[in-house]
Amino acid sequence: MLYGCVHDWCRPCSPELAMLCGCVEAMLTRASDAVRLRAQLVQAMLTRASDAVRLRAQLVQAMLTRASDAVRLRAQLVQAMLTRASDAVRLCARLV
């Protein structure tokens, strides 16, 4: 093989053509590496976007849980106030 070219069809060629073949092969390898790197970058971006969506969903869930807790606490507070009012009415009725 001439000048380290791995292609059998370059053997009978001139040294210049064999070098050109090596250059083209190197360029294709670099392009392939660039495509691979781009794919990894896109995958990382999608993973980050997916993580962001997951985090947003957890945040919304936490907010809804807090809102639900607040509603529950308000209901308990209202119930306690009504109980106290009812107790006050009962006490007033006993006094009268």
UniProtKB/TrEMBL annotation:
Protein's recorded name: Uncharacterized protein
